Structures are given as structure tokens and as C-alpha cells.
Amino acid sequence: MLALLVVMAIGVAGWLFNDWEPRLLPIRVIEVKGELHHYSSQLLQKTLTARLRGGLLTVDLLELKAAAEDLSWVGHASLRRVWPDRLEVEVEEYRPLARWNQDSLVTATGIVFKKGTGIVPEGLAQLEAEEPRAPEVVARYQEWREALRHIGHAITVLSVDSRGDWQVELAKGTRLRLGTDTVEERFARFIASAPQLEAAGHPLRVDLRYRNGFAVKWAPNVEPAVPTPNKDRPMQSGNRG
């Protein structure tokens, strides 16, 4: 009987504590730390306030952490109690490297996240692939972007389909077809030949799916400035592979 009374007393005390603690130790301030580039700290504060249950001692930090990280742009959040009435929230935000498929963004490490309602930086390239390939596509994009920058080109779209067929669209309007095999070698072949191509005219499509050469489709009404093979013919001999 005594044991039952003790258990009941503990239960009542717990109920009273949970009922009174938010009134005695209310959380009055949610302080957000960390660089927020696309969303304001007020939005995060509003999100956490809506999920706030309990006072400083009883608030569920794990629940609030999950609520913060549910926001598409938040990569990691950590929370801690600060006496007497404050929650401190540290946020690491995803920084987009490029657009990803139709409605997402991707970081420099290949993490894909939804863009939500935030402001997306202008001038981001479009990367298109199945999501498991994101780290590979991002790494290749960064490598190729630097190589192209040195010869005055920029990538607008980089894509690889389910068959592994790679294509690149450049800001000047040229499309590169790299195929599925030895794509690094084929890309390097374009880099080496780009000055010759630009001296000859305006290439719309460069098909590098040949073992030893490539085929070029020129812009209409532009005659090559130097002798070249017919359009859509390999500039060097070789079989496509």
C-alpha cells in the first residue's frame, strides 16, 4: 500500500512539474546562429516556436532539431539551453553549387535538396542525372568547369542519362556529345581542339563519340573560316564508339 502511495505521489509530482514548469521557466528567446543565405532567421524561429512544447527544462531538443532539419535548406542544426530563458540554435545551411533536375539544388559534395520557396542564386548551371549519381556528376562538373573556364567557355547544362550517355551544353550555344565511354578523354579532345573550332566558325554540335576524331555541325549561314570537312563529318578519321 505504501509503495502504491509513493508511486502515485511521484506521478502527481511529475504532472504538477510538467504543468507548472513552462510557466516558471518559459522560453522567451530563440537565438539563431550561423550564416543564413537564402532564408531569414525569423523563418526558422517561427518554425521552432510553432513546435515549442514545455519550458527550458522540459522542451524536447531532439524534436526541435528534427523540425529545423526538415527545412529543405538546413543541412544540420544543433540546439542548447541557455539559462534562464533562451534556446540557442546553430545552423549549417546547404550552399547550392548548381540546379539539380527540375525542382532541386545540389551542393559541392553532391547532396541534393529541394529549393523550397527560397531565392535561388542566379547563374547556376543545370545538372541532370539520377540522384545516386549526384556526387559523380558534381565532381565532373567542377573539374570540367575549370578546364572550360581557361578557354573562355562556361557550362549551362551537364547531363547523363540512365544509359550513361554524357552531354554538355555551353553558354556560347555549343552542345558536346561525349557518349558513354572514355568521356574524360573525349572531353580533353574538345579542350585541345576548341581554338581550331572557333577559328573555323560557330559549332552548334560537336560529336566526340569517335575513337580518333569528332564531327561538327556548324551554325547556319556561317561558312568555316578555314578548310574543314563537311558538317556532321569527323574532322579526323575514326570510327564512332
From TrEMBL:
It is a single-pass type II membrane protein. GO terms for cellular component: cell division site; plasma membrane. GO terms for biological process: cell septum assembly; FtsZ-dependent cytokinesis; intracellular signal transduction; lipid metabolic process. Residues 79-108 form the PI-PLC Y-box domain. It is found in: Cell inner membrane; Membrane. Part of a complex composed of FtsB, FtsL and FtsQ. Pfam families: FtsQ_DivIB_C (PF03799), POTRA_1 (PF08478). Residues 222-241 are annotated as: Disordered. It comes from Chromatium okenii. Keywords: Cell cycle, Cell division, Cell inner membrane, Cell membrane, Membrane, Transmembrane, Transmembrane helix. Essential cell division protein. May link together the upstream cell division proteins, which are predominantly cytoplasmic, with the downstream cell division proteins, which are predominantly periplasmic. May control correct divisome assembly. InterPro entries: Cell_div_FtsQ/DivIB_C, FtsQ, FtsQ_C_sf, PLipase_C_Pinositol-sp_Y, POTRA, POTRA_FtsQ_type. Residues 25-94 form the POTRA domain. This is Cell division protein FtsQ. Belongs to the FtsQ/DivIB family. FtsQ subfamily. The gene is ftsQ. One of its GO terms (molecular function) is phosphatidylinositol-4,5-bisphosphate phospholipase C activity. Its main location: membrane.
